[in-house]
Design goal:
597 residues; 1% helix; nine-stranded parallel beta sheet; 27-stranded parallel beta sheet
Length: 597
């Protein structure tokens, strides 16, 4: 109650407890100073004729209140006030003068800002910041004009005033702002900035965001920001570039008003619908998550950089859905597309989820566009389990790598070009194919001699050094690969023959001592050479075998051969001093390749 202008000084310790300090003295010819050397639990001023002034940074407990019961409380030029709540009551002529100060409202519950009908909040060039982590309210009997209003605390901040005015900037950096059906109004030349936080939009009709947050010259929706359309009414998406859009309402339809970009995720959560509204309105979006409700796409082009999840309803109409982002995209939930395109300028992967037995239908055109060295990889989310795909219109698949692709219903044959069959695919993905060729069908050893081994060549002259006689070229789309067998007799001249080889870990057997007619094989791919036929890179480790007049498997693979594999065949012939001379030792060999479709 002191009247000397400094009724409270502190040179010791002031333990505030849960007390209330009320300044109600009148200095007469001057102001009354509010001591900043103490921390208050509750702070009030109450003399209608006095001007109370902060003398420095002042702190009121986060559970407490700064209350202008009457008179004027001024922050001085730019002193900071940190208080749980600020109340400017309805009695008399209560005035709060904020000057250029920062006012932190730190309470975590209740109403953090209250202004009565006869009271005044003079914002100056101040910044009011709500920093408490909790659900709080800002109430006002009339229109409160803030200069800068900043939301930094988590939880929901509900602005109950019929119209909250902001003459400079409104920044939302944490938590959620709820206008509660009211308007938050800018000055026409200021900025609304939303960082990693959420603003609710509850006005109806076109431009709903601009109705809830009106007269801001610039609206900036930064990375990780979310605009939540939460009213059960029809709402239009205003002309902005969004990051995340959340549709949490249970009723009404949310609609585009022009082509729109949502850089983050469009989430349909509450059950209300989303409509692109017009065939000419396109949507560029990071990801789409339909948890409930109906997404009506009309004839729009919907370009998705990330994932697509459908647990509600996707109405494709005549739309085109394009996945073109750099990262792996996952498509989840039974969905019927009209046009579906998978593409990117570099290599890209698209995974189809098998959860819940999802079936993916494309009723018009399915397009996959990769490029040489940049394949579009198509996979199941569960390796070894086929995803179910049902293209029923036309398909153009170029430069793709497909694995675990199932075919559902009346799926057409897609016949990919320049593509890789990585296995476990149903026949709609790749034509059932098996190609096999032999580079030369007549080969010879030339004269046989006891002095050294001989190898057959394609020119019939033979060679005294190890060389391939011919090659087999193999390619197949068979899901379980292939097997290559042969059937042939020994080298014979009349009734005389050269014994079958059974040589292991030897470059050429025992020329001049032991007869041997044998075959060795090598591959430039991943097929398996049967035991006894391994013509490897180390001469001393090579194997030579021949089984006469019995179909014998020599090469096999248990998965498709997407790129042509080349098998090199080497034929060895040794005679001994007891071998009967003959004009022509020869045999016919039949090679049989079997695809395991």
């Amino acid at each position: 109650t002191g009247t000397d202008g400094t009724p409270l000084t502190n040179s010791g310790t002031f333990n505030e407890g849960t007390s209330t300090v009320i300044y109600n003295g009148n200095n007469g010819g001057g102001n009354t100073s509010i001591a900043s050397s103490v921390n208050y639990y509750n702070l009030s001023v109450s003399n209608a004729s006095e001007n109370y002034v902060l003398t420095g940074t002042t702190t009121v407990n986060a559970a407490g209140t700064t209350n202008v019961l009457n008179g004027t409380l001024s922050t001085g030029s730019d002193y900071t006030l940190s208080t749980g709540k600020l109340e400017i009551t309805n009695a008399g002529s209560a005035i709060f003068v904020a000057n250029a100060s920062t006012i932190y409202l730190t309470a975590t519950s209740g109403t953090v800002f209250t202004r009565g009908a006869s009271a005044t909040f003079s914002a100056g060039t101040s910044s009011v910041e709500l920093t408490g982590a909790g659900d709080v309210f800002v109430t006002d009997s009339n229109i409160t004009g803030f200069y800068d209003l900043v939301i930094n605390g988590t939880g929901t901040k509900t602005l109950v005033a019929s119209n909250t005015g902001i003459t400079h900037n409104f920044t939302v950096s944490a938590g959620t702002v709820d206008p509660d059906g009211n308007a938050i109004t800018g000055s026409g030349t200021n900025t609304l900035t939303v960082n990693a936080a959420t603003i609710k939009v509850d006005q109806s009709g076109p431009g709903a965001l601009d109705s809830s947050y009106s007269s801001f010259e610039t609206v900036t929706l930064n990375t990780d920001s979310t605009v939540d359309f939460d009213a059960n009414v029809n709402q239009g998406l205003s002309t902005h570039t969004y990051y995340n859009v959340l549709i949490s309402s249970a009723g009404g339809t949310k609609a585009l008003e022009q082509s729109t970009t949502i850089n983050g995720t469009l989430t349909m959560q509450g059950g209300s619908g989303f409509n692109t509204f017009d065939d000419t309105y396109d949507l560029n979006v990071g990801s789409i998550d339909i948890q409930a409700g109906t997404f009506t796409s009309n004839g729009s082009t919907i370009t998705i950089a990330g994932d697509f999840s459908n647990a509600g309803t996707f109405s494709a109409d005549t739309s085109s859905v394009i996945f073109n982002g750099a990262n792996t995209a996952t498509i989840t939930g039974t969905t019927s597309f009209y046009d579906l395109t998978l593409t990117h300028t570099a290599a890209k992967e698209v995974d189809f989820s098998v959860t819940g037995g999802a079936i993916y239908t494309v009723s018009h055109t399915f397009t996959v566009t990769g490029s040489s060295g940049n394949l579009i990889t198509i996979r199941s989310t569960s390796g070894g389990t086929k995803f179910q795909f049902n293209p029923t219109g036309t398909a153009s698949v170029d430069y793709a790598d497909v694995q675990d692709g199932g075919c559902e219903g009346t799926a057409i044959q897609m016949s990919p070009t320049n593509s890789t069959n990585s296995g476990n695919n149903d026949s709609c993905w790749f034509d059932a194919s098996l190609t096999f060729s032999i580079s030369d069908t007549t080969i010879g050893f030339g004269p046989l001699t006891i002095l050294n081994a001989r190898w057959a060549t394609g020119d019939l002259s033979g060679s005294s050094s190890d060389t391939a006689a011919h090659t087999f070229s193999i390619q197949t789309s068979a899901a379980s690969g292939y097997s290559l067998t042969y059937f042939g007799d020994l080298l014979k001249s009349g009734t005389d023959d050269i014994d079958a080889a059974s040589i292991t870990n030897d470059a050429d057997g025992d020329p001049g001592v032991t007869e041997a007619f044998g075959l060795g094989l090598s591959t430039d791919g991943s097929s398996t050479i049967a035991s006894g036929y391994d013509h490897n890179a180390t001469p001393a480790s090579r194997d030579w075998s021949w089984v006469a007049n019995t179909i014998t498997e020599i090469v096999s693979k248990t998965s498709p051969v997407s790129s042509t594999e080349t098998i090199s065949a080497y034929y060895l012939a040794n005679i001994s001093s007891l071998t009967v001379a003959g004009d022509n030792y020869s045999t016919d060999v039949t090679y049989i390749i079997t695809g395991n479709f």
